[in-house]
Design goal:
Distance between the termini: 39 Å
Number of helices: 11
Number of strands: 12
Helix content: 40-55%
CATH architecture of the largest domain: 3-Layer(aba) Sandwich
Order of helices and strands: HHEHEHEHEEHEHEHEHEEHEEH
CATH superfamily of the largest domain: Response regulator
Strand order of the largest sheet: 2-1-3-4-5-11
CATH class of the largest domain: Alpha Beta
Number of domains: 2
Largest sheet: 6 strands, parallel
Strand content: 15-25%
């Protein structure tokens, strides 16, 4: 039932992205552009970024534009096109954009380039680093404490350091909850092949995994589909959403989500650029800053034993206080 609803959302977002105000910025306005690696109707990573762009338009009075880019050549062309047209700020949404941003930035010193992951810094280039690991750690903890099989699975799109880092944290949370917990991982090599993600998920479920987490953007729908199919057949299997609260995408199986407030982060960075307060340094954003959170699915929370909810609440409080340092990748 969730597929048609998401399709309608996707059409609405596409209409917004292609509207005349998105493609023809007014002269003299604060101009902000966004490059995404996939569909802005993915229900997660890219949709959150696009919502951030729209909030920049609404709250800061900016003229905005968006383009989907798939290859390193397209990344560079997109950055160069927007900078050449006088855009003040261009977001490259992902770890994979940082090299292209650095190359183009040298040619356009008056444009700020912000990537939403990575470590590359130049006078007009900086990354936002979202500490989503803090929330995926809690997902791993839940999986370990509730799993009957002692096996969980992780399905990624492209094998990027930022994605692998969230899996490092999920594994750490699982092992903290149950030292003998086994965690499998699969990368399908792209972010939009839902069929491949479904097959990967089914393979992990066949191996005995009863909890799955994805970092596959639009392809994550295939993971939810596979888990929903097994749940409909009577199996006690669950999934975790990422980047947004994805419980509405598969309300019968998405137990919780690791959530980013991408729109809020985008608005804050854009405001700094507009006001001349941009700093060429990594901006780390986690639970303490109110950007990362762990969200239960209200429709399924009653199925979670009270001791598990208590363990998650305690771990989250320790993370927020800085007492629990969640493992992450080095990037």
């Amino acid at each position: 039932m969730w597929r048609p609803c998401l399709a309608l959302v996707g059409l609405a977002l596409l209409a917004l992205a292609c509207g005349p105000e998105a493609d023809a910025p007014a002269g003299g306005a604060f101009r902000v552009a966004l490059l995404t690696p996939g569909s802005i109707a993915d229900g997660g990573w890219n949709q959150g970024a696009f919502e951030g762009l729209r909030r920049i338009e609404a709250e800061l009075g900016a003229s905005v534009s968006h383009v989907e880019t798939k290859t390193p050549g397209e990344f560079e062309d997109g950055f160069r096109d927007y900078a050449g047209r006088g855009y003040a700020l261009v977001f490259g949404h992902g770890f994979e954009y940082q090299e292209a941003a650095a190359r183009v930035a040298a040619e356009f010193p008056d444009t700020v380039f912000v990537t939403t992951s990575g470590s590359t810094v130049r006078p007009n280039v900086a990354p936002m680093v979202f500490e989503l690991e803090q929330a995926t750690y809690l997902c791993g903890l839940v999986a370990a404490r509730m799993s009957r099989s002692g096996i969980a699975g992780m399905i990624g799109g492209i094998d990027l350091p930022s994605i692998r880092s969230t899996f490092v944290a999920f594994r750490a949370g699982a092992e903290a909850g149950r030292p003998d917990m086994r965690v499998r991982e699969v990368f399908i090599g792209n972010f939009d092949d839902g069929a491949a993600a479904r097959e990967a998920a089914l393979a992990l479920l066949e191996e005995g995994a009863d909890f799955l987490i994805h970092q596959a953007n639009d392809a994550g729908r295939g993971v939810f589909q596979a888990v929903s199919e097994r749940a409909a057949a009577g199996e006690a299997v669950y999934a975790f959403g990422t980047n947004r609260d994805q419980s509405a995408m598969a309300p019968g199986v998405v137990l919780a989500s690791a959530v980013l407030d991408l729109p809020g982060a985008f608005v804050e960075v854009a405001r700094r650029v507009r006001d001349g307060r941009f700093q060429a340094a990594p901006l780390r954003l986690g639970m303490k800053e109110g950007v990362v959170s762990f969200a239960w699915n209200p429709a399924l929370e009653a199925k979670v034993p009270a001791p598990v909810r208590e363990a998650v609440a305690e771990a989250e409080a320790r993370i927020r206080r800085g007492e629990l340092a969640v493992p992450r990748g080095d990037f």
